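Journal club prep, notes for RB
We'll compare a predicted complex against what the paper describes. Inputs for the phenylalanine case:
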Amino acid sequence: MNDLKPVVDSALADFAQARTPAELEDAKARYLGKSGIVTEQLKALGALSPEQKKARGAEINVAKQAIDASLVARRAELAEAQLESRLAAQALDVTLPGRTRGTGGIHPVSRALERIEAIFASLGFEVADGPEIETDWYSFTALNNPDNHPARSMQDTFYVDLKDDEGRWLNLRPHTSPMQIRHAQAHAKKHAGAATMPDVRVIAPGRTFRVDNDATHSPMFHQVEGLWLGEDVSFRDLKAVYLDFMQAFFETSELKLRFRPSYFPFTEPSAEIDLMFETGPLAGRWLEVSGSGQVHPQVVRNMGFDAERVIGFAFGSGIDRLAMLRYGIDDLRLFFDGDLRFLRQFA
Ligand code: PHE
């Protein structure tokens, strides 16, 4: 060939050496750019005679075509290599087993609570929620449990290092009964001035606290309060509602209830409710499940009602106890230890 052969060789070598598209484009500029070697040769054609121009032009074109072809080929190679390495970097191993998200379960106590709420909702009861830190008045005084009354010691209460407006220590509610007062007060207020007032029919489930800790008592436990007040609500209604509740909760009619006389300052008469299964592993034993009674007239007045007209019943049942009976658990602490071997059985 001619003097252009080394130019072509050097271009091909430079292209081959380029490792990236950017390096390749730089190399291209050195030959085919505005002042590239080949471009300069083309510019020089202007000074030649027509015949010389024709011959030289043809030579330059051959060289340029060789360089172009090599450039195109190298571009394709580099693009291919880049794709390969991107694919390798983003490799997805579709044979790897998936990472599953652990699914949680509903705690047995929460499960029992949900059942209780559904059952009472079907009996026409509202569900109310209230504070776990209470004033002395709601936890005791309004429930006819005055200062220095011996019944206060029925509950060993936790106190909070804070005082209410009356200068009395706040407490962690030892039972859900304060919710009887709170809900009934709100009900009275809501219907104040109306010609007739609908019955108060409510349950109030939630956490309660006492200074207690053994296999059947925990310092934090759960109760559900029930309250039905109206002009004509009797102990009979309590018996009917509670029997319905127990049969629905345990999904059996093969059980009996016993109302055993007892004492609570806020009910008169008062009764413990005992349950006996007629079949199954617990059959034949009386099991205490609830306190109950007819709401004391003084409590009815404290709620803001006329105790001559309004009468009804209340009960307070241990949700944890009911869950233990339903699931056959003999140690209350299992509910609160957080042991996954236990909890997984309910997931
Ligand atoms: N509050 C009582 C307790 O915790 C239970 C109870 C509630 C009794 C309502 C009668 C009426 O022991």
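Talking point for the session: The chain has a mean pLDDT of 93.
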